Here is the input.
Amino acid sequence: MVNIKDVAARANVSVGTVSRVLAKNKTVGKELRETVEATIRELNFQPSGVARGLRRSRTDMIGLVIPDITNPFFAELAKHVEASASGAGYSVLLCITNDDPAIEAAQITSLLKSYPTGMIVVPTQSGGPTGWGERELPAIAVDRPFGGHPLISVDHRAGAGLAARHLIDLGHRRIAYIAGPDDAPVSRQRREGFVQALAEADIEAVCVSGQFDYQSGEALGRFLLQRAPGVRPTAVATASDQQAIGLIRAATDLGLSVPGDVSIIGFDDIPLANLVTPRLTTIRQPVASIAASAVAIMVGDTPMPEGDALMEATLVVRSSTAAPGPEQSSE
Amino acid sequence: MVNIKDVAARANVSVGTVSRVLAKNKTVGKELRETVEATIRELNFQPSGVARGLRRSRTDMIGLVIPDITNPFFAELAKHVEASASGAGYSVLLCITNDDPAIEAAQITSLLKSYPTGMIVVPTQSGGPTGWGERELPAIAVDRPFGGHPLISVDHRAGAGLAARHLIDLGHRRIAYIAGPDDAPVSRQRREGFVQALAEADIEAVCVSGQFDYQSGEALGRFLLQRAPGVRPTAVATASDQQAIGLIRAATDLGLSVPGDVSIIGFDDIPLANLVTPRLTTIRQPVASIAASAVAIMVGDTPMPEGDALMEATLVVRSSTAAPGPEQSSE
DNA sequence: CTGTTAGCGCTTTCAA
DNA sequence: TTGAAAGCGCTAACAG
Here is the structure.
């Protein structure tokens, strides 16, 4: 592989000069700079990121730590993080924790060996340890809080409030909520936002909790919907689109029509939400913006924020919600 | 950060010795080795992967190049690759190409800067360029051929044949096939396998092609199913589960029951396949094995194969396929 | 503005 | 079996 010395020799300059043109340092004479640039192209020189990293104790890499790449929301996040990062000349080191604090700790320790510029982490639900040895490494948390690091996430409370108000506006009064794990802050915040918005309209929600996945939505949904029409909720909101999709399945299996018999509203707006039958009304998270801000901070385009940054969620109305049927509204 | 010199000093040995115990080199005296190991733990020493990488011109990283992490099949692949890699002490550098050959080339070039041990690539559909400069880097292709590199993938032809035979065995004769992009080898192979298996039973398939995504499945499905019961196919197979799910949606929208009016069979067995209504009959790819073999080769546990390795697909029968209704079989 | 040079932290001969 | 020392390719002082 051709190195900086080869380029210097070929261009009749010192390695220092080559290094400076690489760094786009303005203190290089125009003429010389052009010669060097030509030589670089001619030799197809690719500076070693490893050598550079060793010298600067920092590589152009960003660690991305997520619980599960198979979750459409995290996949979307990863996609945008990768796009922003590579746009800024950074690579992304992928770590999957499986929502296991021990694996998370191991992954982070292992990450450090590559001297990444920083890391973007969606921590384990159970909120594991916060530190990772001495090395000072900029980190920002996404979606869920991570130690004392600045958090970028959607405003879960406000988003859930949006969902609640949508259901209320539609005329629903008997409303249920399927939450995520009780020990997950994200889950709690969404539930609280939902319950509070309902309380403001003097409505009490029946809440059940489980995981964020399809199965949970289906199982909990079955539980919720298996009761007489006059008692059964006319609308149910979920903490994730995956749960909502499982819920639709449960409703269908029970012979219930959505939204005829039950209105359903999800959270996240994963790609699939727009493809299920009926198309899912949901709360959209601004994933792209979240990813972009996180990367901007890591690469230094934006200063590390002092506190947390809450991005705004938006209501996406599709076909899984409607006004309750007349016979249903009888309380 | 503590380095190898600190450890050496603290343990009263030379850095060479420390390095040797790090490398699990047997030529270190038992006693010395234990002292050094103790010191390493005591100082919580993490050897720098960057320095190591520079010295050896190779880091413990594997490049993973995929078109789209949002595609459940690739997400699954990424998950297993990450798991195998980190199990072997390697990190994974994630590159997303968006199925764009130009981005793919740029990503690969950029990967090289980190001296990865090798790369696992699911190349762009259109089969872009094959080389990436001079540096010799082990690469293995997954799912789709990539230049002259060994390919690990499911046996697309045989898998599609399985689907065809399942439909035939069920009694279907009017069968359609929704393929992926015509310029994608994967797509061609699946279609050929399907068509050929049908031909062996003297059945001719009507084939249409599009993308591998939900939308394509839905659009093409609408096109295929919008015809009179006596002409409409009684079964349709798709090149991907996503298409099949879109297709189910199209059928439902058209008032057709699955599998009552049409049987549907997908390909891949993504997690969602088991959650849609009806649960999707499909052809399962052994993703975990594919990922594990690819990683095993990269980390040197397995020699680089001479030719391509085709893994066996399996038929997963669920509820989206059934024998055609009596009135349908009238040709 | 440009050249020289001392490392970054580690592995790997080469000696002892 | 262990130590000493030469770099891997680059950046960042420091001189000139």
Residues 3-5, 15-16, 18-20, 22-23, 47-48, 50-56 of chain A lie near DNA strand D (CB under 10 Å from a C1').
